């Protein structure tokens, strides 16, 4: 080295030439973060939201760390700007990376789940409200008087709110503003969330409830990660108990998240929260307007929304200080996201708690086998609430053997169930018929030629919806008017409806009990939360005698007058022979049964079945949940299925069957044998055609201790896939269609 240069000079020279390089993760399905240079004028750190150029576009990204140095410095582009918002927390960034690795998804695709609220990062802006602030107007009108009377309370309101509440037009209000009677006040556009009131007393807990609540709060006081199963029969007060854990978390100044299956996110639940904490929680579900989404996102990010109640995607909100997640109805498959990044929000809640160092509570009356296995192995605490609260008792469950008590021809309700319903009706009580099938009939058949009407885009039959006079595909949404003539042989009036859906059961009820007031509850008849709430109110207020419904009625509603529950086809869920068919049928029917007899009138549940001796029916009748779970567990253990083994589902799909089969053959040739791993397939998927795409399945099964993700990633990387073909990977699959 020439003596006139010292080491430090060399170093300085280097720095002067080179700008800092950081890696930026973009919310796109691309392999990883890209490097960008940082302009001298910007100071950025990990987690900062920035805008960067990508091709001709300018897009949002998150600074993920220092640059990787893989691309030559002179070829890097520069960050355009930094966004003035709280940076994404370390915990959330770790969470994104963790899910990407676990689900075999590009990290950017996971990031998208956390940043897909358009405009959330822009400043919230202001809204103008008005309050009394000047002399009364020279000229009075009846309308103006109404407005002035309203404004006496001193509250500031928007023009629209004043007009609506005073019952006048906005022109009247504007007149008063112009006259100087009202003064304008600028407020932040986002209404703030109220702080939960922690001085309120919770419910007066029973000894069992108090014990469970104490265990939960002890974990919160202790700090750090823990997972607890709150295992209590329907109506045992699980909600009241975990509210205590929420209160303890909020008292420490931390945020709390309650995750619910979307369908359970009802007004009733929010009212209970409000009754306990004196304010509404921040809500997060698919029905929110973009404006409300932005409001919640920002309030979570700045820590002013303390309690969030949401569906699975609420996991990805930017909590600065999350201290508790409760997953209610933890067994629900609704927590499993199937499209795009396929993740299970229950499992990811546990991961989030472990990364963030806080407790996670899983609540259920019918815990999943996955969760029970963690309880048995001692990983999760087990808190049990064995009894219903108050005078309510568990309903008696019995089977109606349909071979011995067949319904009349073309009908679906058996004579014994009809008698029970008639009796309830006579006593002024309610009954409910449950059938987890929307529409009128699941299949339309031609009596002349035997043709069955299928979906042109999917490998499935069209379902008749008689009220809408349509045939609909429940997989892709295709629909067409019910034809008069058979599309195959052209015979008129030869089409017959096969099998029942809830609409057909409703029709039968009307015919059998013309005097009864009927409510039909399904996602077709209840569009939106308001319609849902109204139906629940009508039932609660005894404006309804008979309820016919799909699984929409199975979730957590209290109907005090409901004493008879009939399950129209208890065998239905067992027909599809997938891994969890028994477990799920048990969970669903147990949940349905739990609707009966919640108050002081004992309930009776009737399972219409052709297999009364089936273990699922026996477990329901005998109330032997744990024995059933143990039996399921030993079966899965013997066969190496989850939770004792691991599965990855792989679906190859595309519009062109030759291409799909080409890729499948390539995949079949390319997997290497490995100890502890078996690959099944390729096989046509049960839904071999879906939305016009042909589908072929593989299933990878491994023992628990094998890194199945590495194996699959390595395998898939060896096969070149044309653009039109998609290979989707589902780790821990719930659906095998
Ligand atoms: P779960 O979530 O286990 O189904 P809930 O928390 O919904 O049970 O409780 C069922 C019903 O009993 C609710 O109406 C609830 O308000 C009431 N309840 C439960 N525990 C108590 C209690 N300790 N005091 C008063 N009411 C209670
Ligand atoms: Zn279809």
Total count of helical runs of at least 4 residues: 20
CATH topology (fold) name of the largest domain: Rossmann fold
Q: Order of strands side by side in the largest beta sheet?
A: 10-11-9-12-13-8-14
Which small-molecule species are bound to the chains here?
adenosine-5'-diphosphate, zinc ion
* Beta-strand share of residues: 15-25%
The total domain count is: 6
The global form is globular
User: Which class do the helix and strand fractions yield?
Assistant: alpha/beta
- What value does the average pLDDT take? 90
Extended strand count: 29
Main sheet: strands, sense, barrel: 7 strands, parallel
Helix content range: 25-40%
Describe this protein's structure.
The chain has about 725 residues and is of the alpha/beta class. Helix content is about 30%, strand content about 25%. The strands form seven sheets. Strands 10-11-9-12-13-8-14 form a seven-stranded parallel beta sheet, with helices on both faces. Helix 2 crosses helix 3 (about 105-115) and helix 7 runs parallel beside helix 8. The model is unreliable at about 1-15 (pLDDT under 50). Zinc ion binds near residues 473 and 476.
Topology (elements, then pairings):
Layout: H1 7-17, E1 21-25, E2 34-37, E3 49-54, E4 57-66, E5 81-82, H2 90-103, H3 107-115, E6 126-132, H4 142-151, H5 159-166, H6 170-178, E7 182-188, H7 207-222, E8 226-232, H8 238-251, E9 255-259, H9 267-277, E10 282-284, H10 290-301, E11 307-310, E12 322-328, H11 345-356, E13 359-364, H12 369-376, E14 381-385, E15 396-401, H13 415-426, E16 430-434, E17 443-446, E18 463-465, E19 470-472, E20 479-481, E21 495-498, H14 502-512, E22 518-521, H15 529-540, E23 546-549, E24 562-567, H16 581-593, E25 604-609, H17 615-622, H18 625-639, E26 645-654, H19 657-670, E27 677-690, E28 693-703, H20 708-717, E29 726-731
Parallel strand pairs: 8-13, 8-14, 9-11, 9-12, 10-11, 12-13, 15-25, 16-23, 16-24, 22-23, 24-25
Antiparallel strand pairs: 1-2, 1-4, 3-4, 3-5, 6-7, 17-21, 18-19, 19-20, 26-28, 26-29, 27-28
Helix pairs in contact: 2-3, 2-11, 4-5, 5-6, 7-8, 16-17
The structure holds adenosine-5'-diphosphate (ADP) and zinc ion.
